[in-house]
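Weekly structure sync, notes
Attendees: PL (lead), two postdocs, one rotation student
Agenda item 3: pending single-chain targets
PL asked that the sequence for the first pending target be pasted directly into the notes so everyone works from the same version. It is reproduced below exactly as submitted, 235 residues in total.
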Amino acid sequence: MKRVKIPYGEKHFFVNLEFSERKTISITVFPDKTIRAKAPSNSNDRIIMNSLKKKRFWIAKQLKYFENFQPLLPEKKYVSGETYYYLGREIRLRTRKSKTERVKNIGKFLYVDSKDYRNSESVKNLLEEWYELHALNYLTKRFYLLRSDSSEFRNIDVTLQLKKLNKRWGSCSNKKSVSLNIELIKVPIKCIDYVIVHELCHLVYMNHSREYYQLLSKVIPDWEIRKEKLNSFTI
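Predicted structure, written out during the meeting:
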């Protein structure tokens, strides 16, 4: 990976450039305002720079878009009263002293029972275990349900991995493997479905071509609305 500088008026953008076995150049702007581009291994610098410069107005638009959102998942202290999210719903943390170590979601509250209920690290570990368990269960069921419900995907062999991803909600490899970020368990169901279908479409088209977006629009006609909602959450 290398860092390239793209001029934009009196300003400039820094783009993290990666090379891989692909046919086209892609650019992604993340909610934290980092920019990543992927290019074919045999691309020369002039072609890459020209492609990136052509996209500079789009990059600026994306950066401005993300500036309009406040992170919904700020750094936590793991104390009672903090707001957390589960399937897009706001839930309040309540820590309680108990001999039993457990986490329970009851209505609008997320109860963490622990003998070390005032220890933020202990509460954090219990919460992360709870989120991961629910993510593994729910996201797996949702993935295979959406796959089987669509004739475009149900006959494609695919393996699913659930793990923490850096700055991505999901990814797809040319080996028919889809990875989903377990943090998805915190966003609304419609956003989860959008990410899953987004990656399933890549099993058919490993690019962002016109055909890819036609397929995505066929399966989820309102995918742009869902994507906008998803962008209000941070990874």
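Discussion points:
- The domain at 83-230 is CATH 3.30.2010.10 (Zincin-like).
- Helices lie at 45-54, 56-67, 120-149, 189-202, 210-219, 223-230.
Action: rotation student to compare against the earlier draft before next sync.
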